[in-house]
Design a protein that fits this description.
Number of strands: 14
Strand content: 5-15%
Shape: globular
Number of helices: 17
Structural class: alpha+beta
Oligomer: single chain
Bound molecules: protoporphyrin IX containing FE
Strand order of the largest sheet: 1-2-9-6
Largest sheet: 4 strands, mixed
Helix content: 40-55%
Radius of gyration: 23 Å
Distance between the termini: 58 Å
Length: about 525
């Protein structure tokens, strides 16, 4: 709450606020003060956040300031964590200190007043909502999730066969597959790629994520005075949020009017949870708004993440050993690492595809894979892990907030500090990963030296990705089906592996040939 009033008091005297802030955030006891880049008058380190590939920029800053450093923006102090050890200390070991979310003006707008699971702050109401959705997801995962993903994998196979070896951009097909898994889970509906309902839903959700991730919008949180000025980007955000709520309401109303046709869907479980006769004490805090916002969480959290990961996987598998992608952003400082993405010299990625295919053929003897086969398919698992390492699709997770005074790596962290877990940085930490910028799936094979403990693409602790088990089953089955039946060949130039970083780390559009095996 103190954070909220701090950020939302546009009338506050700036000088006295600055003094208050300095006083409040001064290091306590004998704790050393956090390192970080010099902070400029008024704007602090705001410019650091406007970098167009923030995860890479923060990872470069970590080279200079270490695994934990601070940035200041307006009244807010952010602490960026760049290694799996410090991220685990904060998110897992001290989860109860850092399970909060920053309460902010713009987050309140996109989350229906903090009522989504992803942006809601840590309190009894949030815990009841998360528990309810978690239980519903588990129930669906145990009963029909496998079948739903298999159906989408087979549909994807059919679509790829229809392309008849033409060079195509598969991103939309991946989005449809991922989205259909979630809409089937949520309210028993799946859509065709050409469906206007599907397109409307995705254009709206993508727009909200992109707008909310833009610096035009985050500036409103750090500098409340800006809210008084006209801001067309913000007006668009408001319009899209209203459109989203209208679409979701229509789907949920539709579901309810189906007279329990889809007892299995998550919505059925959630509605039971909202039934006053069945509610536990904490569930009594929940309303239809929580059901509505949980649906938003699943759709946003579960679509672009999985679809982007599939897109990255195909892209990495297309690169040949001689293909080198150098990131040489002119705007970076001289100390910046030249990031180079290249392949393990031992084999090309086109060969990695053959290795996975051979493994699938040997182990499965012609049948399609089941999730229970995963232990017998180490090469496939190593590819999945390596793509999750190199391209964690939520590269900076979602910001956390210190609920109380605490410490990380021996540094004092005052209550209300923002914590940014830089998962991308942790996955490129040279102290943990040999050749961190190499695509080298074999590091995850026995004796390869890759550490699954240091692999944290889903975060951890109280805020661990709610869809982790759904995502893992999807990544496994969809990749296994694709690599069993197709060989992916570059169509002209190979994809640019740098990516575009917003809330989700996406690859730039590229085309590929899916050659049937
Ligand atoms: C490759 C796939 C995915 C990755 C890498 C991923 C990663 C993440 C990460 C890093 C977070 C933030 C954790 C934190 O705040 O510390 C997160 C949160 C979340 N994810 Fe995922 N995710 C994936 C797929 C999914 C799917 C399929 C769903 C839904 C079925 C989902 C639903 C959510 C939700 C609801 C949250 C918010 C959790 C909370 O704040 O308590 N995600 N995810």
């Amino acid at each position: 709450q103190s954070n909220k009033s701090e950020q939302e008091d546009p009338k506050g005297n700036f000088g006295s606020k600055l003094l208050q802030c300095v006083f409040k955030h001064r290091p306590r006891s004998s704790s050393p003060s956090l390192p970080g880049p010099p902070s400029r008058f008024l704007i602090g380190n705001m410019m650091e956040l406007t970098h167009n590939h923030l995860p890479i920029h923060l990872t470069n800053l970590a080279q200079q300031y270490g695994h934990i450093f601070r940035l200041k923006c307006g009244n807010t102090t952010m602490v960026v964590l760049n290694s799996s050890e410090v991220i685990r200390e904060a998110l897992v070991k001290k989860w109860s200190d850092f399970a909060g979310r920053p309460v902010s003006y713009t987050a309140d707008i996109v989350s229906g007043g903090g009522r989504t699971i992803s942006l809601g702050d840590y309190n009894e109401e949030w815990r009841a909502q998360r528990r309810l959705v978690h239980t519903a997801l588990r129930r669906c995962s145990q009963s029909f999730l496998h079948e739903v993903i298999e159906r989408q994998a087979l549909h994807l196979r059919k679509v790829l066969l229809q392309y008849q070896g033409r060079a195509v951009d598969l991103s939309e097909d991946f989005t449809v597959a991922a989205s259909n898994v979630i809409t089937t889970l949520a309210f028993g509906e799946e859509y065709d790629k050409s469906s206007s309902e599907l397109q409307e839903l995705h254009s709206c959700l993508n727009e909200i994520v992109a707008l909310w991730g833009s610096s035009w919008i985050s500036a409103l949180d750090f500098f409340p005075l800006l809210r008084k000025l006209p801001n067309p980007v913000f007006s668009r955000l408001l319009k899209e949020v209203a459109r989203r709520d209208e679409i979701i309401k229509k789907h949920l109303d539709n579901y309810k009017s189906k007279d329990k046709n889809n007892e299995e869907a998550i919505t059925a479980s959630l509605l039971q949870g909202l039934d006053p006769h069945r509610q536990t004490e904490h569930e009594a805090l929940l309303t239809d708004v929580h059901l509505h916002m949980a649906t938003v969480d699943l759709l946003i959290g579960g679509t672009e993440t999985t679809a982007s990961w599939l897109n990255w996987t195909v892209a990495f598998l297309l690169h040949r050993p001689e293909a080198r992608h150098i990131i040489s952003d002119q705007t970076l400082q001289p100390h910046t690492l030249m990031l180079s993405y290249c392949l393990s010299p031992s084999f090309s990625n086109l060969q990695v595809q053959d290795m996975v295919h051979e493994e699938l053929c040997t182990v499965l003897e012609g049948r399609y894979p089941k999730y229970s086969d995963r232990q017998q398919l180490p090469v496939l698992r190593s590819v999945i892990n390596e793509v999750l390492r190199l391209r964690p699709v939520a590269p900076l997770a979602v910001p956390h907030r210190a609920i109380r005074d605490s410490s990380i790596a021996g540094y004092f962290i005052p209550k209300s500090t923002l914590i940014i877990p830089n998962l991308f940085g942790a996955h490129h930490d040279p102290a943990v990963w040999a050749d961190p910028y190499l695509f080298k799936p074999e590091r995850f094979l026995e004796g390869g030296g890759g550490s699954t403990r240091a692999l944290i693409p889903f975060g951890g602790g109280a805020r661990l990705c709610l869809g982790e088990s759904v995502a893992k089953m999807e990544l496994f089955l969809l990749t296994a089906y694709l690599l069993r039946d197709f060989k992916f060949i570059p169509a002209g130039s190979v994809p640019d592996l740098r990516g575009v970083a917003s809330v989700v780390l996406k690859i730039k559009p590229y085309t590929v040939i899916a050659q049937p095996r």
